[in-house]
Design a protein that fits this description.
Radius of gyration: 24 Å
Number of helices: 1
Number of strands: 4
Strand order of the largest sheet: 1-2-3-4
Shape: rod-shaped
Number of domains: 1
Distance between the termini: 58 Å
Strand content: 15-25%
Order of helices and strands: HEEEE
CATH architecture: 2-Layer Sandwich
């Protein structure tokens, strides 16, 4: 009976370890998801200030600027920052532009605004 009890106790320990690992993995996944959701909201909020400034600049000059720095100080006080502190990326081409921040979605993928679609995507 001692061998059977030891085997049953060992199985319970293995089961508890598997459950603990699964819970830890779930916690990490939830943390990445909620952190990414919060970062996406931050990017959208800061990004909409840049979108408004870019629209005002285009109304006055007829085209988008070649760099976000050209919006300072008339349209914005500073270029919008990504959650990590880096300035938002900006690419203008063919009369349209894209704003972007890296490592936002699940804290690993970029999050972008496309002026053509007027939508954020990641």
């Amino acid at each position: 009976m001692h061998a059977a009890n030891r085997q049953a106790g060992g199985s319970q320990i293995v089961l508890l370890v598997v459950i603990a690992v699964a819970l830890a993995a779930a916690y990490v996944a939830i943390d990445l998801y909620t952190g990414g959701e919060k970062d996406m909201l931050t990017v959208e909020t800061r990004g909409m200030n840049m979108v408004s400034a870019l629209s005002a600049y285009k109304r006055e000059s007829g085209a988008y600027p070649d760099a976000l720095d050209k919006l300072i100080p008339k349209y914005v006080l500073a270029v919008g920052k990504c959650p990590g502190g880096a300035p938002m990326g900006y690419l203008v081409s063919g009369g349209e532009y894209m704003l972007s921040c890296q490592k936002v979605v699940f804290k690993s993928m970029p999050y972008n605004y496309d002026s053509r679609s007027k939508r954020w995507a990641g």
